[in-house]
Amino acid sequence: MDKYDDEVSTPKWFWLAVAFIITSWLLFPIILNMFNWESSEKGSFGDTYGALNTLFSGFAFLGVIYAILLQRKELKLQREELRDTREELRGSKEAQQALQKTQEIQRFENTFFNLLNLYDHLVKSIEIGGGNNIRVGKKAFEWIASMITNGGPFGYNEIPTMKSYMDNYCQQYDSYPSQLAHYYRTLYRIFFYINNSELEQIDKQKYAKIIRAQLSNDEIILLFFNGQTELGAKFSQYIEKYELLNNGDFSFLPREYKHIILQAYSKQAYGPSGQNQTIL
Among residues 116, 110, 147, 117, which one has the least CA distance to residue 129? Predict the structure, then answer.
């Protein structure tokens, strides 16, 4: 029995009154016959019995009033119970919404870290060269980057141009199209997934920094040149938005080209301050 049942229970005096009325009606004829009165005397006494009826009618009226008051109290308790129920439902709804948001974040992170594992596996599986000159994983990117920055059509005494750097990059891409194309597509898909998440509670920069921390300097150099090509144009928006050139070392560039590299992307691409320190 809850608090509402206790508050609407019938008081003991009510049941005593009911018992008194029933007992009086049952015993009154017996008492009347015990005196063996004449009919005229019974009639006179019957008139007195009418006063008893008036008394019982008063009791009945009292019962009606009590019933009304009892019903009023019960309705009040029902309203309080409904209010408590609404508050419980409201709290349950808020808890459900919080749980749903937590589950949405968990689903996002599960997919994100699966993509991160895919990226890591892909980088480790990249191989270039042959025979005793096979380079695997990060070493492969190191070799390709060195061929872009140090090799190509210009000699040691010749000052390279940005076009010559781009020619070197395109030559390396054509040499390893399947490895590099697969790598770029995977990296693009990760940033696409982060950028297009509709969860308001997701800090997109936070997850982008996790990916950025996995990039070697050689990968950053490749991303820089790839974003200047037609194939990498779509990726350039993520290079800028998520500051992917922030930790890149571009010291290989001649000083007279520093302003050119800064103009290749918006300042945000080079970090929060707008400029990578190795370019200054």
Answer: 147
| pLDDT of residue 1 exceeding 70 | no
Reading the block at residue 129, the tokens are 């060269």
* CA 201, chain centre distance (Å): 6
Q: Note the pLDDT of residue 100.
A: 81
Say if residue 162's pLDDT is above 70: yes
Tokens for 132, please give them: 């005793």
Pick 29 or 253 by higher pLDDT. 253
